Amino acid sequence: MFKKLKIQLLTINAICLTIVILIIFLGIYYITLYEMNLQVSVVLNDIARNEETVSLIKGPSNNVKMVVSSSFFIKINKYGKVLGYSKNINIPKCDITNLKNTVLKKGIQYGNIKTGHLRFKFLKVPKKYGFIIAFIDNNMEINLYTYLIISFLFVGTISVILVIIISLYLANKAIVPVKTTLDKQNIFIADASHELRTPLAVLNSTLEIVVENKDKTVHSQMKWLNNIQSELFRMTKLIEDLLFLARVKKEEMPMSNFNISTTINNTYETFKVLTNKKNIELVFNIENEIIILGNEWRIIQLINIMLDNAIKHTPSNGKIEVCLLKHNNICELKIKDNGEGIPKEHIEKIFERFYRVDKSRSRSQGGTGLGLSIAQSIVDEHRGSINVLSTIGIGSEFHIMLPITF
Questions:
Q1: Rg, the chain, Cα only
Q2: Residues 6+ apart with CB under 8 A from 342
Q3: Where exactly are the structural domains of the chain?
Q4: Strand partners for 130
Q5: DSSP track, 320-356
Q6: What are φ and ψ of residue 15, in 5° steps?
């Protein structure tokens, strides 16, 4: 699939850039053609008006001048008889007669004629005695056009080769994010399917046991019914987390100024109950009156995720410390624990969806593997950053930096 996509991108880029090059050349070619015709027309008019030959043509910049290899005129009466011609003419008299007859036969005032190896532009102007026909050698103009075409073919060929090389490079670069996104999507689908398959399997097995013992009372089967309820709760939580991650990328988050110091302090009592159950010391060091622009509900959700994660991974008699500090226009939230720590090879992956350092343990604790991914999304919404320092056996320290205004 990616090979086909790369070929399509390469083809589109090559065609578009080739069309641009062709348009540029045609523009240069027709502008040059117009300028040359304009200059030649001016020269022919000067010859016809003054009855004198011209040896130089001024270029578009009025500085560049091009030498005319041959220009002359022929005077004829109303009956087509030659009355005279310019002194500098250097072609045989028979050719003069042929040129005159060819012009009269064409019946037009301005155009091109060819006789033998000679090519001329001509202008026929009426006079009192009849007509004057001014001629100018057209070989130089033709040679210039030929040179332009050959130059374009040479430069165009090189340009097309470069275009193909550049297009191939751009196609490869363009495919990388697409491939990465698709790979992540496939992993996400596989992980979500796996996460849902497990509780569904448990539900199915548990229900089979209940059905097989249909003669028993509800009270006697409470163990199995509680398992069903637990798995349903876990599936509900998983689906809610998935929906949140889907919405957070699409919905515009409402923002307002609020006191983040008060918001975090208000969560202390809730988590104090949970830490007391595990005999964990919970310490809040919150700098007062820090006002930030953001979404208060999502900041509450962020602190809930981070503290819930810290409690799960901190053993009994451990310690969790929450700090909030202000540095100029940055608000720093630090959550530190003295739990088991995170191995170095896992640190860069813990914010990925469904990623768990210890899958069996996280599942037994009721985790979905989406908590830190949601935390990352909330921090990104607030244009902040989140990183972690961790040492095995010593603990982990999460640092969240949030701009006060943006």
A1: 43
A2: 350, 357, 388, 390, 392, 396
A3: 2-146, 254-403
A4: 77, 127
A5: EEEEEEEETTEEEEEEEE-SS---HHHHTTTTSTT--
A6: -65, -45
Provide the 8-state DSSP code for 305: H
Is pTM beyond 0.70? Reply is: no
Which two tokens mark 332? 């720093």
- Torsion sign, CA atoms 7, 12, 17, 21: positive
Terminal Cα-to-Cα distance of the chain (whole angstroms): 41
Specify whether the CB–CB gap between 21 and 159 falls below 8 A. yes
The secondary structure of residue 109, as a DSSP letter, is: S
Distances (CA, A) of 168 to 13, 17, 20, 199: 9, 13, 18, 47
Residues 6+ apart with CB under 8 A from 31: none
State the CB neighbour count (10 A cutoff) for residue 113: 17
Write out the chain's pLDDT in tens, 406 residues: 667 777 777 778 778 878 888 888 888 888 888 888 888 888 888 888 888 765 544 444 444 344 344 788 888 888 888 888 887 676 777 777 888 888 888 888 888 887 767 788 899 999 888 999 888 887 777 777 788 888 888 888 888 788 778 877 777 777 777 777 676 666 666 666 666 676 777 778 778 877 777 777 777 778 777 777 777 777 777 777 777 766 666 567 788 999 999 999 998 988 898 898 889 999 999 999 999 999 898 898 899 889 988 998 899 989 999 999 998 889 999 999 998 888 888 888 888 776 666 554 445 555 567 788 888 888 988 999 999 999 888 999 999 999 987 6
Query: Would you call 247 exposed, middle or buried from its count of C-beta atoms within 10 A (0-12, 13-18, 19+)?
Result: exposed
Q: Using CB atoms within 10 A of its CB, is residue 249 exposed (0-12), middle (13-18) or buried (19+)?
A: exposed
Helix (H) or strand (E) holding 391: strand 385-391
How does DSSP classify residue 220? Answer: G
> What is the 3-state composition of the chain as percent helix, strand, coil, each rounded to the nearest 5?
55, 20, 25
The SS3 call for residue 198 is helix
Cα separation of 48 and 46, whole Å?
5
Indicate the fold that domain 254-403 takes in CATH. Heat Shock Protein 90 (3.30.565)
